[in-house]
Each structure stands twice: as structure tokens, then as C-alpha cells.
């Protein structure tokens, strides 16, 4: 399946020292692939302070989402968890990530496809001294795009 791209960039956090946004959305009937981008202003050359980027410890950047129908989920590490322990409502599953001291990019799979209407992005970045931030976006565009996803092969 080839998803339909949605040209979104939603800024989650913008401060004097940090920036976070979600972008590069690809909608599928079963969910959405997107990228989280984190950028840091280099005020502290100490490499140990840069490790608090994504999904590493309680002071790391955290991302959550709430659909218009009330279902919600948040980024967590799932690699060591059985399927029974994973969230039942909404999954924000981290995929490939890379970066350097000033920028980090992390792909995420959001399952299932959001319901049409407003979806709320929730973020917090304790290591940067940033409390909870929320941004709303209309998921109707993602839902419409998912209907245009292209099936490459028919099931047998």
C-alpha cells in the first residue's frame, strides 16, 4: 500500500532553546506515518545533556495524541513489552530515528487512523524545562487522504 501524503507541519514547541514539530504525514486506511523533528539551540556543549531527546528516560521529550472521539495514546517504549501490555486505544509506535547534537528526527506510526474532527497533540519536554503543551489540528484531512491511499496488490 502507498499512503497519501498530507503536507502538514504542526509546531508543538517553540522556545528560546528548543523546537519540536510533527511533519511529513502519510495517511493509510489503517493509520498514519509521520516524523517528529526536535531541534536544540547549542548553549551547553556537554554531550550528556543532549541524551534527553526522545524516549530515553523520564526527562525525555514525550508525545501524546487525543482523537475527537476521546481515544488517546502516548509515546512509550514497546520493544520489551508483550502485545497484552501495549495500549488498546491508540498506539504511537516509534520507528527509525537519527540525528546529531542539534537535531533529532524520529518516525512514528500512529494507529489507528484518527477519527474525523479535531485531534489534540500533547507534548512535554522536562529536560528542556518545558511543561505540557497542546496543539489542535483537524484530522479530517488525514481521513480523506487515507481514502486515496493506493493498494499495490490485491489480497490472495
Tally of DSSP β-strands? 9
What is the number of domains? 1
Gyration radius from CA atoms, angstroms? 16 Å
CATH classification class: Mainly Beta
CATH architecture: Sandwich
CATH fold-type name: Immunoglobulin-like
Helix/strand structural class: mainly beta
Poorly predicted ranges (pLDDT <50, ≥5 residues)?
A: 78-82
Please tell me the overall pLDDT.
Answer: 83
Cα separation of the termini: 15 Å
Element order: H for helix, E for strand: EEEEEEEEEH
Helix content: under 10%
List the total number of helices.
1
Q: Strand sequence of the main sheet, in spatial order?
A: 1-2-3-7-6
Largest sheet: 5 strands, antiparallel
The amount of beta strand, in percent, is over 45%
Shape: globular
Give an overview of the whole structure.
- By secondary structure, the protein is mainly β.
- It has one domain: Immunoglobulin-like.
- 4% of the residues lie in helices and 49% in strands.
- It has one helix spanning 140-146; strands at residues 4-14, 18-28, 31-40, 62-66, 72-74, 91-100, 103-111, 118-125, 130-138.
- The strands form two sheets. It has a five-stranded antiparallel β-sheet. A four-stranded antiparallel β-sheet has the order 5-4-8-9.
- A hairpin with a 3-residue loop joins strand 1 (4-14) and strand 2 (18-28).
- The longest helix is centred in the C-terminal third of the chain and has 7 residues, at 140-146.
- The chain starts with a strand and ends in a 10-residue tail after the last helix.
What descriptors fit this protein?
single chain; 156 residues; mainly beta; Immunoglobulin-like; five-stranded antiparallel β-sheet; four-stranded antiparallel β-sheet; 1 helix; globular
Amino acid at each position: 500500500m502507498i499512503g497519501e501524503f498530507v503536507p502538514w507541519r504542526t509546531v508543538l514547541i517553540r522556545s528560546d532553546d528548543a523546537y519540536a514539530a510533527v511533519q511529513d504525514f502519510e495517511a493509510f486506511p489503517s493509520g498514519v506515518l509521520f516524523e517528529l523533528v526536535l531541534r536544540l539551540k547549542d548553549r551547553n556543549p556537554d554531550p550528556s545533556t543532549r541524551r534527553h531527546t526522545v524516549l530515553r528516560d523520564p526527562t525525555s521529550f514525550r508525545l501524546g495524541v487525543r482523537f475527537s472521539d476521546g481515544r488517546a495514546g502516548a509515546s512509550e517504549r514497546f520493544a520489551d513489552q508483550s502485545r497484552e501490555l501495549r495500549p488498546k486505544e491508540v498506539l504511537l509506535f516509534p520507528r527509525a530515528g537519527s540525528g546529531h547534537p542539534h537535531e533529532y528526527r524520529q518516525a512514528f506510526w500512529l494507529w489507528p487512523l484518527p477519527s474525523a474532527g479535531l485531534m489534540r497533540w500533547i507534548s512535554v519536554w522536562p529536560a528542556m524545562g518545558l511543561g505540557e503543551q497542546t496543539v489542535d489540528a483537524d484530522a479530517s484531512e488525514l481521513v480523506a487522504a487515507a481514502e486515496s491511499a493506493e493498494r499495490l496488490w490485491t489480497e490472495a
